[in-house]
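User: Could you check the structure of this?
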Amino acid sequence: MAKTARKMAAIREALEEGKVYTLPEALEVLKNAGKERKLNESVEIAMNLGVDTRHADQNVRGMVTLPEGTGKDVRVAVFARDAKADEAREAGADIVGAEDLLEAIQGGTIAFDRCIATPDMMALVGRVARILGPRGLMPNPKLGTVTPNVAEAVKAAKGGAVEFRAEKGGIIHAGVGKSDFSTERLAANVRAFVDAILRAKPAGAKGVYVKKVTLSSTMGPGLRVDLASITQGA
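Assistant: Sure, the predicted structure tokens are below.
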């Protein structure tokens, strides 16, 4: 523990206070920090947006598929019956069911990270909305998780689809990969995520939309990143 603490302190000391990094610089710092700790850490992005989520016309929410995946094993549950249930299983869904899945959730068993449903199952799913909603697991047609194309949705969830939603204070964050990803793979994911946020700019947003972009790793420092180095590929 003491050795790890010394390594972390050394990494922090090497950082320039107040520096705004380019995307490649920030990713190299985070990757090197992970190597020092001998851990395959998650790399996360946080964006401070100029929106007030208390107003409906300033909400930012959507889904983006990261081109290089997340590096995480995403467990997917699907509410479906008959042929659609078979399609979901063939596509790699971890849990497929109807009333049995409903009962498991009502009993407190939520062994999944993403929930998908066919449209005809939403009356059933609505009975556990109070359980799934607060956990960010409620299927939503706007996010592509209520769909008759369950196979496509399952593959997207397994392949790197990430949901985003601005929280109180206009902060939005997500995982964009692992520290053992190459700099190029991480950069591709970061750019895809930021592009999705820019395209999701709500009509009610006034003034500066993206105020700050920060990259961090599980145990690493938060590094402020120049937005132009992301959008212009510098």
